[in-house]
Fold each of these.
Amino acid sequence: MTSTDPFSPGEFDPWAETYDHDVAALNKFPFDGYDRALDTVVKLAAPEQGMSILDIGTGTGNLALRFARRSCELWCTDFSELMLEKARAKLPEAHFALHDLRADWPAEFDRRFDRIVSAYVFHHFDLSGKVNLCKDLVTRHLVPGGRLVIADLSFQDQKEMNAFAQSVGDLWEAEPFWLVEESLPALQNVGLKVDYVQVSPCAGVYSISA
């Protein structure tokens, strides 16, 4: 990765120490509805004891921990080593890999899972990147009948996003956030089934399957 990388581990490593405090204390953009979003992922994933769960971009392990409490087998990736250190402390029984979604999968993780989940990761990719990742994950890394469930920064359309951006002022940082009006048909056009739930003014959850 080069210095022009739009999102690099170097930007996330320093955040590891305060991340859990920040998501709990900041009830505005970008973390308005953070806990509701993670809880909704768990609800839509409908985990059962012993299921294998891949958590992409696990960060400090807040989403994975919810599945661990339901006696699932956790497989967690992140591209920040310092974030993974925090997650390992919370989830000593989980499998971990330092991995960038833009790179080839670690050999141990190149398998199929009962569920794949992710929170606040995919908005770093443009629409085609999101769609390609979702298709690859569903077709190559899910068991038949499995489900990919993604919580992320998401708005119904461009107009709604623009209005929200104005409402939060200097807190706004523009990235290729999900827009439901374009994301749903784009995912459906590559043969994926998708349902969507808005959980806060700036966050939603996508449930995707083959």
Amino acid sequence: MINTLYLIRGLPGSGKSTYAKNLLNSITSPTILLEADMYHYINNIYNFDPSRLADAHDWCRTNTNIFLNNGYNVIVANTFVSHVEIDPYIEIANNLKIPYKIFKCTGEFKSIHNVPEHIIENMKKRWQPIDGEDCIIYK
């Protein structure tokens, strides 16, 4: 069986992490869930440092590539507001000649990381649709 890259996108509080965990539990072959936010956990405490955001995304892309190269399915849940943010993952899949699927979550819940409303509004303004994505609506 060929491995697959699953990309889950949406604004903070849209249900990305919940959908990703449900997807992870539904796949029977070796699968890992990665989120750039994981980089900000130290001793199980979320310690977001905006100056390390680029490092967090580099960590996520690097680990995506490593796990895909080792035969795992990889689920990546990040905001992926623009093509610039998601295209490097699509490039990884294309370079490895593996399929990828994109899911957009559109729920409206409270952000688990307390992202300020003005940041979310800015993300909404920058949001770019992606052809072929499946829409997941949580209520």
